[in-house]
Amino acid sequence: MVKKIPIGPFHPILEEPEFFELHVDGENVTEIDMKIGWSHRGIELLSEHKTWDQVPFLVERVCGICSCSHPFAYVKAVEDLLGIEVPLRAQYIRLIAAELERLHSHLLWTGLAGHFIGYNTVFMWAWKYREPVLDILEAVTGNRNHYAVMRVGGVRRDLPQDEIQGIFPILDQLWKNNELLTGAIVDDPVIHARTKGVGVLGKAMCREYGALGPTARAGGYDVDARRDHPIDAYDKVDFDVILCENGDVFDKAVVRQLENFESIKIIRQCLEQMEPGEICAEVHEIPPGEGLGIYEAPRGEVLHYVRSDGGNMPMRHKIRAPSFNNILTNEYSVRGSTIADAGLITAAVDPCYSCTERVGVIDRGIDDRYILSEGDLIRLSQEKTEEIRKRFAKE
Amino acid sequence: MEREEVKKRIAEKFGNKVQIAESSPKRVYIYAENDIWVDLASFLFNDLDARFDTGASVDDRDGVEVMFFMPFDREHYYVTIKTFAKKPNPTLPSISNVIIGAKWIEREIFEMYEVTFKGHPDLRPLLRADNRPEDFYPAKRETKETHEMPRSRDDGQERADEVAGKPPKGKNP
Does the distance separating the beta carbons of A328 and B103 come in below 8 Å? Predict the structure, then answer.
């Protein structure tokens, strides 16, 4: 008997509401239908009514977590249109802010994923380790979030030279903490049993769906805009692109954890290579033309396309966040899973997850309906982990 | 595949149906006619091994310019394919049957600009709120020119009062 389970769309603590309708046969999901747009704010149209210099502040608010990635991609789009080079010091400051953002985003996801599977210790430790990252961000940009650091031609704020030495010990500690956290996740047999083989998205399907970021790299699909389309100082620093093979939830977690080490490496190199100098190139006016800006945000590649008609505002500004491509992959990866895993799989994409406010189960055969809350869905997932944990304890 | 090789193979296959331009070594723009649109996307994706990224559209007065971004990652450049859907009733063949990942972006362009993608498996509006009228396409130039948006909440209330025939607040009738 096929049942339909609507999930979503709203949840107060998370930023992107979505609606999923799971078609289930017993415990297994046979089909999924998705609807987005619950918080459509018309930012692309708003942007056409802002001056070129005001737009970074607007696009910062596309996503609270990626508040460096969107302005970064936007300023690169305008700089692509202008064909200008940014001063070296500004390039390094941009990289530092962007990589710190990746660190805090990945740690946030690890914590949430821990919570979903019933590992609240992972949740609390990951968020505890995230705090020093926000402290460094505050030292570098002046803000813990919504950094307001990007501008066309460079950055708005210089990094005080005497702050730099104080950042290295925090990075060393972060490295150790991340090693501890990675070990706790990778060596835990219960997490293996709970996440391996769940929500598999292989290389071929990643390519078909245009998957991006850790979602794609976990499946062995080798895309990383930092290496493939290097902007600013990314070609001056040394880092590895982390790849896994299986494309399941476990690999998505591993990719994110290992990427944290690469981010710390990049930040350290930037701080070492930085020299005093200019932080912004002069930009007077934007000529007619079009520009494309690409940046690898924590969740995958962000794309901004701008077109100018020579005025003081963009004539068209297209924004594509990585979740737009990644959420669509759920259509494939959730199919065949159980209801207890469905929440975990959709969360593994890190889709600004906010879809499980309430779940209503509709049984068409007997016209019966009951509602499960978000807490119920997490409880289902946590109970499954507990069962596995007990089984391991017996063995 | 290198940039020059890609340009050569596309020019060979599609002849005068395409125009190729470059703004920098990292950006290639290909303008195509409507009838080879799906073939061009399929040729880039399946034969030349480009990645599918996403799409965008720009409303000109005479039609809607639709573009898709297909990067070549190993060689570090972006190919943008463009075509022009003429008004009234802009229509294009859908590439979602060739590239699954294009499904949502075509739905978005349809609902924002009223470009109908023929052959799309499921051309429902993607972002539209339930209470928005069926024939309202917010990003269309005609909509923007004729539909007055309230500038603030107060302004919206004032205009609602005006429509209802109520006297404006704070002013003597």
Answer: yes
Number of domains in chain A: 2
Beta strand B91-93 with B116-118: parallel, antiparallel or unpaired?
A: parallel
pLDDT exceeds 50 at position A357: no
Same domain, A288 and A360: no
Q: Which residue of A has its CA nearest to B59?
A: A316
Query: Has residue A328 been placed in a domain?
Result: no
For residues A94-124, b (16+ Cβ closer than 10 Å) or e, as one string? bbbbbbbbbbbbbbbbbbbbbbbbbbeebbe
B126 closest CB neighbour out of A36, A307, A318: A36
- Looking at the domain assignment, is residue A326 inside a domain? no
Task: Please tell me the pTM assigned to this model.
Answer: 0.88
Range of the domain at A181: 43-320
On the CB side of A22, CA atoms within 13 Å amount to: 30
CA angle A17, A21, A24 (to 5 degrees): 145
Q: What percent of chain B has pLDDT over 70?
A: 86
CB contact under 8 A, A209 and B53: no
Alpha-carbon distance of A221 to B53, in angstroms, equals 14
CA–CA dist A348, A368 (Å, integer)? 31
Whether A365 shows a pLDDT value over 50: the answer reads: no
Whether the CB of A229 is below 8 Å from some CB of chain B: the reply is yes
Query: Do the domain assignments include residue A367?
Result: yes
Q: Are residues A272 and A204 in the same domain?
A: yes
pLDDT tens digits, one per residue of A299-332: 999 999 999 999 999 999 999 988 888 888 888 8
Task: State residue A38's pLDDT score.
Answer: 73
Residue to substitute from A228, A309, A335, interface B, most B β-carbons within 10 A: A228
> Who among B27, B73, B128 is closest to A228 (CB)?
B73
Q: Which residues in chain A (33-52) have CB-CB distances under 8 A to chain B? A: 35-37, 40, 42, 44-45
What ipTM score was computed for the predicted complex, to two decimals?
0.86
Helix (H, G, I), strand (E, B) or coil at A18: coil
3-class secondary structure per residue, chain B? CCHHHHHHHHHHHHHHHEEEEEEECCEEEEEECHHHHHHHHHHHHHHCCCCCCEEEEEECCCEEEEEEEEEECCCCEEEEEEEEEECCCCEEECCCCCCHHHHHHHHHHHHHHCCEEECCCCCCCCCCCCCCCCCCCCCCHHHHHHCCCCCCHHHHHHHHHHHHCCCCCCCCC
Distance from CA of B101 to the nearest CA of A (A): 4
Instruction: Output the pLDDT for position B148.
Output: 66
Q: Tell me, yes or no, whether B172 lies in a domain.
A: no
* Residue B1, amino acid: M
Residue B169 counted as domain residue: no
**CATH number of the domain residue A120 falls in:** 1.10.645.10
**Which residues in A lie closer than 8 A to residue B102 (C-beta atoms)?**
210
Structural domain contains residue B138: yes
Distance from the Cα of A305 to chain B's closest Cα (Å) equals 8
Q: Which of residues 289-318 of A touch B (CB under 8 A)?
A: 289-290, 292, 294, 301, 303, 305, 307, 315-316, 318
